[in-house]
Write a structure and sequence with these properties.
The structure holds 2 protein chains of 2 kinds.
Chain A (H helix, E strand, L loop, with lengths): L2 H30 L15 H14 L1 H6 L1 H20 L10 H5 L1 H24 L1 H6 L2 H22 L5 H12 L10 H16 L7 H7 L1 H4 L12 H4 L8
Helix pairs in contact in A: 1-10, 4-6, 6-8, 8-10
Chain B lengths: L34 H6 L10 H15 L1 H9 L11 H6 L6 H16 L1 H5 L1 H4 L6 H10 L8 H5 L6 H14 L5 H13 L7 H19 L14 E4 L10 H15 L3 E2 L17 H18 L3 E4 L3 H15 L13 E2 H10 L15 E4 L2 H6 L8 H13 L30 H22 L3 E4 L2 H10 L10 E3 H8 L7
Parallel strand pairs in B: 1-2, 1-3, 3-4, 5-6, 6-7
Helix pairs in contact in B: 2-3, 2-10, 3-10, 5-10, 13-21, 14-15, 16-18, 18-21
The chains are: A mainly alpha, B mainly alpha.
The complex binds iron/sulfur cluster (2 copies).
Chain lengths: 246, 498
């Protein structure tokens, strides 16, 4: 087993630990934080299922974004849908035998690789050409796009520029899952791809990628409009009842 | 030196998204609260010595108390979808009035003191220390946000700049940087029960005057009772309704509706204010104390039902926050177990055939309706989502033959703020108020030109004051603005039903 293979194996264990631990902690802390009052953005659904559906529409269709900015919606939707397809297609590296539907979507995954780059390209271009976006974009916003684009381009590079032995890559991936380490091919595109993926996993819980859990926890979207019927209160403000005059 | 002329925006036939005008409104700063005022509200009189530590501690406390704040500060991806949605940006081009940039003033500080990334790589993630300059920017730009929540509507994560500006104001108050206008109003309300500082005798005088006016006008003895123990209904209304034009015509409208319905009702001199400026400064304590006045008045008077007059943020508090701050309201009539909006009451009555209305009385008008931000985006009406849009329109259409809506992108939940809400209705913020009113004025001008609109109705005391105060600067007639119940007032046929 080469030093490189061991280094990458350790890198991915570390990255996975940071991702799961960091994100898990964030989700737990969002969950644990008090919601002392109703702050839904109206008009809001009157039932729990209605509010769940509202959040689902935001997650799946980017409903609010659709109403606010068609360009961001098109590029954002293209990027996210492509990313989802690519991630699902990548399941073939972690399953043996490969699940039937994962086999079926492989061709989609290939196209999605290009969709992902196109979506990112559009989002990134906005940050240069559109005055308001230019103003609000920080270094980390550009770097995040660079990171994602780098992952995508390196991935496409393996397919179209310099082929990688994906059977060996799969053996490496499965080896990580089953704690039976296997050697990793050393093609530059592969190493770049994997390095950037590990970086992404590590920065996710500390970056604006927290919009992933955030979208589920936003009170504006997730709260039910039952303010009149249900007394929304948290421990800290319930305690203040005792200080009231009546 | 000549008095500074404000730049009044020119209205075009559409609303262009402005190019960035850096610092266009940076010089417009609302007056600070004097030390005595700050102290009277339990805040430090002036900027405290260790303001950095105190401010960070307060922010930390708020982050532990509100999930919304934490999630909103974490989740923004800087997509810019909200950037062109704020009326203060649209009217001024000042980039710090883009909601995301306004949020970032606080987010940069949050990153610096409360996130790992901001501690490790501050330049990368735009984390900044809380400096004196930063405090000044907070003070300026968090007092240029009317907390209208239009940005939240358009954000993919619902990020609500109102929550962030309330938090910032709460922090500022706690280090001695309160705003004069809002804090004065809060103090008056604590002391006398209303924002205008009317004492009970003056209140009684005022409403007696109104009773006489109605008698002179109509020959019908319509009462506006004050502090009547045992009345069925407590009316809580913004105190501007007692004085200001056109608000007072709305109050007379409510009184006539109650009169025709034969309702037993009363005002309270103890809770003579529906508005709750405690919300504007993000102070739960002050908001709760003010809200509890209504509860106390209701219990003391023994009423069974509460009706809230035309006031935008008052309705947000009454609908969304009263149960939390001053509930449970289980002593009310189970048929009306929570405070109702005057529009809910009137519309219900109209549907039951309880009012005799003659819409031809308003035939001289072509009316449009300005949805106020707080009813639109922070509350509800009628028990179903969107009732807050339908019910006022239903009433207007019943009492007016000619009603048209403004452009669909400027009404209902997408409505623009009048430009004066959230504690901005003060003279020194006039340039901000003029800028913020531009999108609404543009939409109004369009229906005036195309549909012959002559009047715009509103259900918010602040909207009405802001419009009547600022419209002349746009060369428009302030008398175009009417209270919704002023239209009812015109149409109601007294003496025919009761
Ligand atoms: S729309 Fe929401 S996520 Fe996008 S920049 Fe504005 S606040 Fe941030
Ligand atoms: S809440 Fe309203 S005023 Fe404040 S930033 Fe958002 S859109 Fe602008």
């Amino acid at each position: 087993m080469s030093f490189l293979s061991v280094a990458y194996a350790l890198l991915f264990y570390g990255a996975a630990a940071v991702l799961i631990g960091g994100l898990g902690f964030k989700i737990w802390s969002y969950f644990a934080l008090p919601v002392p009052m109703k702050v839904f953005t109206a008009p809001a659904p009157r039932t729990r299922s209605g509010a769940a559906l509202r959040v689902a529409r935001e997650v799946v269709f980017f409903e609010s974004l659709f109403h606010s900015n068609k360009w961001i919606w098109i590029f954002g939707a293209l990027f996210h849908a492509s990313l989802a397809a690519v991630l699902l297609a990548h399941l073939r590296y972690f399953t043996e035998p490969v699940w039937g539907w994962v086999v079926l979507i492989q061709p989609i995954g290939t196209y999605a690789g290009f969709g992902l780059i196109a979506g990112l390209g559009g989002l990134w271009a906005r940050r240069f050409v559109e005055e308001r976006s230019r103003y609000i974009s920080g270094l980390s916003d550009h770097l995040m796009l660079a990171l994602l684009a780098g992952i995508g381009l390196a991935g496409l590079g393996m397919k179209y520029v310099a082929h990688t032995d994906i059977v060996a890559v799969k053996a490496f991936a499965l080896g990580l899952v089953y704690l039976d380490w296997q050697p990793l091919p050393t093609d530059p595109f592969l190493l770049l791809h994997l390095t950037l993926v590990a970086m992404l996993m590590i920065v996710l819980p500390f970056s604006k990628l927290l919009h992933i859990p955030g979208v589920f926890f936003s009170p504006a979207h997730s709260q039910v409009d039952d303010a009149r019927e249900h007394r929304q209160i948290a421990a800290w403000n319930a305690a203040l009842d005792a200080t009231r005059e009546r | 030196m000549a008095q500074k002329e404000y730049d009044v925006p020119v209205l075009e036939d559409h609303l262009p998204t402005p190019h960035l005008q850096r610092d266009a409104l940076a010089h417009v700063r609302s007056h600070p609260a004097k030390p005595e005022l700050q102290k009277a509200l339990g805040f430090p009189g002036e900027l405290v010595e260790d303001w950095e530590a105190k401010a960070v501690a307060k922010l930390g406390e708020l982050l532990q108390k509100h999930r919304s704040l934490r999630v909103y500060l974490d989740a923004c991806v800087k997509c810019g979808a909200c950037a062109d949605k704020c009326q203060f940006f649209l009217g001024s081009g000042d980039p710090k009035n883009m909601p995301v940039a306004r949020q970032d003033l606080l987010r940069q500080v949050y990153r610096k003191y409360f996130t790992a990334a901001g501690k490790i790589a501050p330049d990368l993630v735009g984390a900044k220390p809380l400096t004196r300059e930063m405090l000044d920017e907070w003070y300026v730009y968090y007092h240029q946000c009317s907390q209208c929540r239009r940005c939240s509507l358009f954000c993919p994560y619902g990020i609500d700049t109102a929550e962030i500006s309330m938090a910032a104001r709460e922090v500022l108050d706690h280090i001695g940087m309160g705003q004069k206008y809002t804090n004065e109003v809060i103090l008056k309300c604590h002391q006398l029960g209303n924002n205008l500082g009317l004492n009970p005798a003056a209140l009684r005088n005022t409403v007696e005057g109104l009773e006489e006016d109605i008698m002179d006008d109509t020959g019908v003895p319509v009462r506006l009772p004050v502090d009547e123990v045992g009345a069925d209904v407590l009316l809580v209304t913004p105190s501007a309704d007692f004085f200001a034009e056109p608000q007072v015509d709305g109050l007379i409208g409510y009184a006539k509706v109650f009169h025709q319905a034969g309702l037993s009702w009363t005002l309270s001199s103890y809770a003579s204010e529906a508005g709750n400026f405690g919300m504007f400064i993000g102070s739960y304590d002050h908001m709760q104390k003010l809200a509890v006045r209504i509860r106390k008045a209701a219990l003391d008077l023994g009423v069974k039902r509460i009706i809230v007059g035309e006031c935008g943020h008052a309705w947000r508090v009454a609908y969304s926050l009263l149960n939390t701050t001053s509930g449970p309201w289980d002593f009310l009539d189970p048929k009306y177990p929570h405070p109702q909006h005057i529009c809910e009451y009137t519309w219900d009555l109209i549907q039951k055939g309880g009012l005799n209305l003659d819409a031809t009385a308003n035939d001289d008008k072509v009316v449009t309706f300005h949805d106020s931000c707080n009813p639109a985006r922070a509350a509800g009406m009628g028990g179903y989502p969107g009732g807050q849009f339908d019910i006022p329109r239903n009433i207007i259409k019943t009492v007016c033959n000619k009603f048209v809506d403004m452009h669909p992108d400027t009404i209902r939940e997408k409505t623009f703020c009048c430009g004066g809400g959230g504690g901005l209705l003060t003279e020194e913020l006039m340039p901000v108020r003029i800028a913020g009113m531009k999108p609404r004025m543009q939409a109004l001008k369009q229906v005036m030109d195309e549909k012959g609109v002559t009047h715009m109705a509103a259900i918010c005391a602040i909207c009405k004051s802001q419009f009547t105060g600022v419209m002349p600067r746009y060369g428009m007639d302030p008398y175009m603005i009417v209270s919704l119940h002023q239209l009812v007032n015109n149409a109601i046929q007294l003496g025919t039903k009761e």
